[in-house]
Amino acid sequence: QVRLVESGGGSVQAGGSLRLSCSASPYIHSSNCMTWFRQAPGKGREGVAAIYIGGGSTYYADSVKGRFTISQDNAKNTVYLQMNSLKPEDTAMYYCAARYLCPHPFGASWEYNYWGQGTHVTVSS
């Protein structure tokens, strides 16, 4: 089993930055796709960014492209989401999820085997 724990959420003003972390234990398999999802109140869960651990390929939702960056630190078994130029519409609960390989664009949420508890991000105008 893989345990995922998110951290780094908080409250920032529009235009600010946050760095989310997803720590995996005992490790992140090289064939894993690690994906950040988010869900705002009253809205469905949407894929934000994904990274294929083995090859390092990354994928982004159009809404965050150019503002968010997903990365990995294999030594720490951790995936990060650097969030810059935050907008109020980025306000949501952010979840880290893992599955085998990376679908395009992100696949359905139920296709992911492992989920963290989420970390909340609030962006004020």
Descriptive report:
This protein is mainly β. It has strands at residues 3-7, 10-13, 18-25, 32-39, 46-52, 58-60, 68-73, 78-83, 92-100, 114-115, 119-124. The strands form 2 sheets. Strands 2, 4, 5, 6, 9, 10 and 11 form a 7-stranded mixed sheet that branches. A 4-stranded antiparallel sheet has the order 1-3-8-7, with no helix packed on it.
- Percent strand equals over 45%
- Uncertain residue ranges: none
Helical coverage, percent range: under 10%
**Overall pLDDT:** 95
Shape: globular
Largest sheet composition: 7 strands, mixed
Radius of gyration: 13 Å
What is the succession of H and E elements?
Answer: EEEEEEEEEEE
Give the total of beta strands: 11
Overall SS class: mainly beta
State the end-to-end distance. 40 Å
Number of helices: 0
Output the keywords.
11 strands; mainly beta; 125 residues
Produce the secondary structure layout.
Blueprint: E1 3-7, E2 10-13, E3 18-25, E4 32-39, E5 46-52, E6 58-60, E7 68-73, E8 78-83, E9 92-100, E10 114-115, E11 119-124
Parallel strand pairs: 2-11
Antiparallel strand pairs: 1-3, 3-8, 4-5, 4-9, 5-6, 7-8, 9-10, 9-11
Task: Summarize this entry quickly.
With 125 residues, the protein is mostly beta strands. The chain has strands at residues 3-7, 10-13, 18-25, 32-39, 46-52, 58-60, 68-73, 78-83, 92-100, 114-115, 119-124. A hairpin with a 4-residue loop joins β7 and β8 (78-83).
